[in-house]
Amino acid sequence: MTTMMREEILEQPAAIARTVAALRPRTDDVRRLAVGRRQVLFAARGSSDNAATYGRYLTEIVAGRAAAALAPSVATAYRRRVDLGHALVVCLSQSGETAELVETLAWARTCGAATVAVTNVGDSALARGADLALVTAAGPERAIPATKTFTAQLVAMALLADALAPTPGAVRGIERVPDAVAELVRGRSGIERAVDVLLGRPRTLVTGRGLGYAVAAELALKLEETCLRPVPGLSYADLRHGPIAIVDDRVAAIVVAPRDGPVLAGLTGLVPELRSRGAAVVGIGLAAGVDAHVAGPDLPEILAPIGLVAAGQLVVEGLARGLGLDPDAPRGLRKVTQTDPEEAG
């Protein structure tokens, strides 16, 4: 069975290449807009919020600028003025039409912020309202779950961080990403075995850390959307601070790991602990000691999340089909989500 979700996962190498070509020329514009802005604040919801998490890590690790999440409810529910004269505010929305985020961006400008919109729709309300719009080139997405639009947002975050870095070129190797993702999605190495392991356990959790935490959170969200399972997506540091108590022989744990970097040792050491509690372990990018190994990308840690999430999306799509569900149209969801009911009017 071929699904739209799977087709769009396979389109990601081309979508990534188009997005790099579209956004690389905008890095000088980002750099100029950010002059004098000491802090970078990100606002988003859903999958876009997970892309923003990757952006926050990159902004601090690569660019050396303090970064944080900006709560849209401060603007839209509490309507409090905040001094943002020191800030670059980045709002992410794939459609660019989520009313809460459009309002948040407008509010940030009135509070003195310079604003950037990251969206897949160039003529959207979010793009029109921003000082600068970074328009990804994923193309139209037909399946409800965000796949290629999400990976395109990750590319935008990498190029944003590069633009904010003290020295341009801090994010190296982005031109290799399309080929690395193409190898993963065409090869599908380990996908069927991973799906079998997940089908054999009624409960699932996903964990990662550092730059890969955004991938863990996104895959947990995708599993909830398409497979109708409550799935925590946790940093392994948080997992060890209490939630690990839920791990037993009914759990399949997905561990997301890059091929290198400072978090790899901790993620590798987590596997035997999970198995000692009875869990089956699926490693995405991690082979040591796992029950199923899904190949990760041949990319350095800083760019690995773009490939890791593509591999994970294939697992999610396969699991949904294995459960007899339609991953293209998850129950009760639609492409443009409004946070509050009155926004839909």
Automatic annotation (TrEMBL):
Transmembrane segments: none
Alphabetical UniProt keywords: Aminotransferase, Repeat, Transferase
GO terms for biological process, alphabetical: carbohydrate derivative metabolic process
Gene3D superfamilies registered for this protein in UniProt: Glucose-6-phosphate isomerase like protein, domain 1
PROSITE patterns reported in the protein's UniProt record: SIS
Pfam family, one: SIS
Annotated SIS domain residues: 29-170, 194-325
Molecular function terms, GO-annotated: carbohydrate derivative binding; glutamine-fructose-6-phosphate transaminase (isomerizing) activity
InterPro entries noted in UniProt: GlmS/AgaS_SIS (IPR035466), GlmS/FrlB_SIS (IPR035490), SIS_dom (IPR001347), SIS_dom_sf (IPR046348)
Record keyword Protease present: no
EC number(s) stated in the UniProt entry for this protein: 2.6.1.16
PANTHER family, sorted: AMINOTRANSFERASE-RELATED (PTHR10937:SF8), GLUCOSAMINE--FRUCTOSE-6-PHOSPHATE AMINOTRANSFERASE, ISOMERIZING (PTHR10937)
Name of the molecule in the record: Glucosamine--fructose-6-phosphate aminotransferase (Isomerizing)
Organism of provenance: Nocardioides soli
